[in-house]
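pasting for the record
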Amino acid sequence: MTAPAAPTIRVATVADAARLVEAMRVFNREEGITWDPVAGRVALDGLLADDRIGVVHVADDADGALAGYALCTFGFDLEFGGRDAYLTELWTAPARRGAGVGQALLAAVEGAAATRGAGALHLQVRPENAPAVSLYVTRGFEASHRVLMTKRLPRP
């Protein structure tokens, strides 16, 4: 059996939203994250409609199946000269893992962030997720010596 052809990596559009939400359900379940797909869809629609917020890339197999996606949002930090970027999600379909899809998506995100003026690209990864950690180290990411802390804020 021959390996599947490399997927086509492209910027997602609103037309991709429904299949992205389904993949995001899988991603969040795999990560053990409680996720509301209705609120997630609203946020995704806003992101897809405004490239000042960030960019979503999809990996399409030749048959049109979703091989993976990557979601990158933008922030602002003086330490990095202004705009920075955050890889908030990178997911590869289980059948396509280990085939370079994650590498291709990450390269697309890095290029898009740099082109849009980001001085750094941040991400979070569970330390026990060895394949993901290996991917990120291979691409030049380093562990930060800071502790990420989060506080959920009430929405107006």
